[in-house]
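RETRY 2/3 - previous attempt timed out on the joint model. Re-submitting the same 615-residue input unchanged.
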Amino acid sequence: MEFFLIFDPELASRIIFWGLIIGIIYSLLALGLNIIFGVMKVVNFAHGEIMITGAYLTFFISSFFSINPLFTIPITMLVIGLIGMGIERTFFRPIKGTSKLNEIFISIALILIIQNILAQTILEVNKEIKPVRITTPYTYSFAEFGSFRLPYDYLIILVAAFLFLALFYTIIIKTSFGRRLRATSQNRNAAELMGINVERIDMISFGIGTSLAAMAGSFLGIITHFDVYSGTLPAIKAFAIIILGGLGSIPGAIIGGLILGLAENFAAVILGGAWKDAIAFLILSIVLILKPSGIFGKE
Amino acid sequence: MNKKFTKVQIIVIALILILPFIFPDPYYLQLFSMILMFSIYAISWNILAYSGQVSLGHAAFLGIGAYSSVLLVKNLGLPVLATIFIGPLFAALIGLGLGLLVLRLREWFLSMVTFGFSVIVQAIVVDDRMRFLTDGWNGLFAKPFVSSLFPYHQLLNYYIIAIITIVVYISSSLIFNSRLGYALRAIEENETLAKISGINATYYKVIAFTISTYLAGLSGAIYVHGITLFVSPEIFNIQNSFWPLIFTLAGGIKTTEGPILGAFLIWLAWTELSRIASYYALIGVGILLVIIIVFAPKGLYSLIFKIISNIRGKQT
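RETRY 2/3 succeeded.
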C-alpha cells in the first residue's frame, strides 16, 4: 500500500522538503493576492499569469546578460510591480464599483491577454514554445546528507524567502506606509477621512502584490520547468489558501501556503498523482461546508 | 408576458432556424452547432447566477453530463437521443447534492468551492481506480446523433441541436417570468428580506442549482455526441468553467437572450480570429472583452436596447 511509504524516513524527508519549497511559492503568491484583496477587495484571477511573466523576465534577463538569476529577481520584481500598477490603473479602476462579476470577467480577459502576449514574445525571441527552466550557477550541485541529495538552490530559496518575508512583515507592521495600507484594508471610508489617498494605496498595493507574484514565479522557474499556461491553477489555489488562512491575514497566507505545499506532496504519494491539484480544494470544501465563514471567520 | 418580449423571441428562433441556409458550408454548420451548445451552457450558468449563486466550476457538470451519456450508450446500449437527456439527470443529482452543501456559503466562498469541485471531479475521473470506466486521460469515443452514412447528416445534426436549444431558451424565459424566477430575483436582491416575505429561499436556491446543473449536463452531452464525438478529462478544464461566465456577462447577465448573444459573438470572434493562427488574434479577443465590459458593464444586449430606444426616442 502506498500509504506506508510515507513512514520511510528518506522518502518522508524528501516529501517534506519538496513540500516546503513549493509551499513557500504558494505563500508568496497567496500573500500577494491577500494584500490586493485586503485593500481593494478585488480578486485577480490573472495573478498566476503575472507570476509566469515574472518567471520569464528573470529567465530572459539572467540568460541574456548571463547574471546569476538570484540577483536579477529584485529587478524583475521592480518591473513587474510597475506593470502591476499599470494593470490596476487601466483594467481594474475603470470597472471599480460596477459589480463583483465584472471584476472576475476582466481578470479572465487579462489571463487571455497576458498569456498570448507572452506566447507571442517567446515565439519571436526563442523561435519555439517549450517549457523552460531558469538555470543558476548551482543548478547541478547538491549538498549531500547520506543518501539524501539536497540542491543548493532550494536552500538558497528557502533562506531568501524567509528573510524577505520577515522584512516584509516588519514593513507592514512598523512603518507609516504599512499603517496606511492596513488602515485602508480595515476600513476604506474611515481611512479616506483620515487623509489617506486610498486610490494611491490601491495602486501601490497592486504593485506590491504583483511583485510578490514575480518573486514566486522566479523561484518556481528555478526549481522546475514552466510554460505560459502553468500559472493559472496555482493562483486559484492561492485564493483557496487566503480563504482558509483568513482574508487579509499575512501570517495566515504564509502558513497556509506552506501547509498546502506539504499536503499536495503527501496527497500525490498517498492518493495518487491526480489528487495533487485537487487536495487544496478538497480541504477548502470540507472546511467551508463544516464552517461556512472560514476557519478564522466570524459567524 | 408582454408583446415586445415575444417579438425578440421570434427573431432569435428564426435566426437559429435559418442560419444553415445563409451559411451552408459544413465548417459553419459545425461552428454554429458549437455556438448553440455553448448557448445552452451559458443559459444554464445564467439561471444559477439569477439566484445570486456564482459558479466557477460549471465544467464539472458539463463533463459529468457528457461522461454519463457516453457511458450509458457504451455500457447499456441505449440510443443517443435518449441518453443525452438521461445522462444529465446524473449531473442534476450531483448538482442537487452540491447545491445543498453550499447553501450557507457567501458569494466568494461558493465560487471557490464550485471551482474546486470541477478540479476534484477531474481527479476522480482520471484516478487509476476509475480507469475501468473512464479510461483515464485517454478518454472515450462518443456515438454521433446521426450516422455519417446518412445524407445531410450535418444538417440533421444541426437541427437536432437547434431544436433543443430553442426549447431550453423558451424554458429559461418561462422560468424567469414564473413564480420561481421572481423568487430567485428576490433572493438575489436580498435573501433576508425574501425570507421575511415568506419565500422559501433554501428550496428555490437548490431548485435553481438542480435545473442549472441539468442543463449544463445536457450541453455537455450535446457537445460530445454532436460536435467532438469524443470525451476526455480535458472537458473539466478551467477554460470550460470560465466560458459561460464570459458569454453571459458579455451578452447580458439576467437576461434570457444575453447568454445566446454572448456565446454567438464571442465564440465567433474567438474561432475566426484563431484561424489566423496568431497569438495577436487572441490578444485581440482579450482586449475586445475588456472594451465590452468597460463600455457595456451590463452586457451587449442592454446596450443594443439602449441604442434602439435612443433611435426611437429621436424619431418621435
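Chain B has one domain: 3-237. Closing ticket.
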